[in-house]
Each structure stands twice: as structure tokens, then as C-alpha cells.
Design a protein that fits this description.
Elements (H helix, E strand, L loop, with lengths): L1 H6 L3 H15 L6 H15 L2 E7 L2 E7 L7 E4 L1
Antiparallel strand pairs: 1-2, 2-3
């Protein structure tokens, strides 16, 4: 989890690259604009979300993701 807390912001660009390569090789989508739009939309849907929550102890960042059961908390 410590590694995820440090590099959660890298997941979105990695997903975009993976989806672009997949669209190009597997589905043979040759138009770059269509490939880019579909890849960015899929990466946006599957990327982690970051919220700042106000608690009694102060503000805390909360990262939620489709593939995590519980949110990850980062002290701010």
C-alpha cells in the first residue's frame, strides 16, 4: 500500500498508453484521434479518484479505486 500511496497518480497515464496500444494492435483502429479519445475515456473511468475529507483531526486525502475494497487514506 505504501507504494500505491506514492505512485497512484501514475496509473492514469499508464492506462492511457496500455489502451492505446491495445486499440492499435488488437482492434486495428488506425485513426489516431479515435484511438486517443477511446483510450482517454477508458483510462478516466478506470483511474483512481482522489477526495479531500474534512475530519476532526484535519484534512485527509482519500483515494478510491474500482479495484480496491476499501479506500486508501493519506494524511495531508
Amino acid at each position: 500500500m505504501k507504494l500505491f500511496k506514492k505512485i497512484f497518480w501514475l496509473i492514469n497515464p499508464i492506462l492511457i498508453v496500455v489502451f492505446m496500444l491495445t486499440m492499435d494492435k488488437v482492434f486495428n483502429i488506425q485513426e489516431i484521434w479515435m484511438n486517443s479519445i477511446i483510450s482517454v475515456l477508458l483510462a478516466f473511468i478506470l483511474s483512481p479518484r482522489k477526495k479531500i475529507i474534512q475530519t476532526q483531526n484535519g484534512k485527509i486525502k482519500q483515494i478510491t479505486w474500482l479495484f480496491l475494497k476499501q479506500p486508501v487514506l493519506i494524511n495531508k
